[in-house]
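FW: tagging you since you asked about this chain on Friday. Here's the raw sequence from the shared folder, copied in full. Didn't touch anything.
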Amino acid sequence: MARKSDVGFVEQHVEKIVLAVCALLLIVVFLRWVVSSPQEVKVLGAGNRIEDVAPGQADPKLAQIAEAIRASHDGGKAPKVPTIDWLGQLRQARDNPCPPMPPMLDLGMATPQIKLPPPPDPNRVPSLDIVVALIPAPGKPAGWCNFECPKPPLGKQPKDLIVYRGASVYPWAELRENWRRRLRTLRVLNAVVLGVEVEVQSRLPREIWEAVPAEPANVVKLPPTDEQGKAVAVPKIPDYDGTNADDVRRAIDEIRQNWQWYFLTPPYYNVFCPGADYVPWQIHLPDNEVSQMAEPGLLVPTDTPTPGPVPEPGWSDPRRRTPPGRRPTPRRDRPTMEEFPPDIPFDEMPGRPGTRYPRQRPGPAVGPAARPKPVVAPPIGVKVMEIPDLAKQMEAGKVLIVFHDNTLKLGRFYRYRVRLVLLNPLLTFDSLVRDPVRDARTKEVRSPWSEWSDEVIVEDPTTFFLTGRLPPDQVRVTVFTRKLGQTVMKAFLVSPGMAIGRPATVRLSKPGAAEAADTEVDFSTGAVAVEVDFNRPFLKGSPGIMRISTETAAMLYLTRTGELKTRIQAADEQAERYKKLLKEATMGGQ
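HL: got it, structure written out here
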């Protein structure tokens, strides 16, 4: 039998511990489900209202609600099925083929706030005043002034005209940079030439320029023609009224692509060159920066133009800007001045030797993209100053302006200035300018005037120099004049009381003729010899060095205006103009 001391406390009282735990659980159950049981429960009643009822009434209440729901379902009507109006949708699609976009699906993302740009500075908004202030002036015109023999219309005889040909270089790169820097808001920046304006001042020898008003020059511009020689009209830019921007811009593009060269370097008549027939007028183009970009070509024959009607403002030869076909070859034979034989009377001596001018056969045809093959230069070559393509000029930043005036008069001084007429770059840009009515609807803007060109005087082409003597009372005078674009001369023997110069026959190159022919030329000067002196003292040599005293012939004569003047042989033979005219007559007039 086990002893009491060997049994633990748990083993001794395990029954009591189990009974205590069960009693504790019973108490918890009683308190949770008996003492703490709810007195009311919430039930969904009529009208979807929540009602509080006793627990015993909850089941009947729920049964009542279920019965009401079943009765409503049993007595209810079927829902109406919507009918789609397909015909109405088709009509709506026909009337409005491009409906507005549906609103974007809201994904719950916050829309970022758009920051509006600050209002533009009124001082930086483009305006017409800013555009005009940024236009530079053309360069000072360089000029060529002399007699020229342009090609006449069919059935008319050629004649010499006094021509002033001006050339000015415009700083195109400066204009482009000025507008680009200040007019950045424009989407398209058009720098387009619409014309050239020329002013002239003309005065008598005793007048001053400040007292002479400037007047528009009567420049010559031949009417434009197409490739077939038919007259075409210069396109006009329509007036912008706020609704015809497309029409205005189409006209601008047409002028920019095809007509700017016509305004800058307008076509002019071909001119007669002895030994080469009619050649381009560029043989008398003044030297300028733009022409130096192109190599000058030797003068080669041109094709004979197709006969056709020619308008005449001073003679209009409606040819294309660049004469097609071949260019004239250089003349190989040049007349040489022969000394007057002492045994022939002076009034019977020939003014120019009868040297023939053989006409060269034309070379191979030159295409639009080809250049003439180089030829051997003659002893004295006549050159055509090439004008680079307008696109090349604009790329180089310098644009050539050329004008022609053949209305000059003898004995007067002339000077010219030019300015450029440009397209207003603000035209049609209503929303980008300060004043839309003024700034966006004005078509033309003008550059400042260039400087005045150097003055030129139109001297009488008929002049004479004392070049010999025949005692006791006769002297020899050499008379120079112009005929058919050539400088010609003739020697006469005069004595006191005789007129200086008279009509005489000389050999000249004539347009369309292969050889020189005898031509009557009027060498009358209008002057009369009054007195001759064969022992006139004269100091030969240049000033500043040792000069030699000698005797020479002198002649007192009466001019056509009634003035008494003197000619001295030694001074005339050293005069620069005498040497120049003698050289021109020897070279054939060019």
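FW: The first strand starts at residue 41 and ends at 44.
HL: agreed, and The chain has eleven helices and 22 strands.
FW: great, closing this out.
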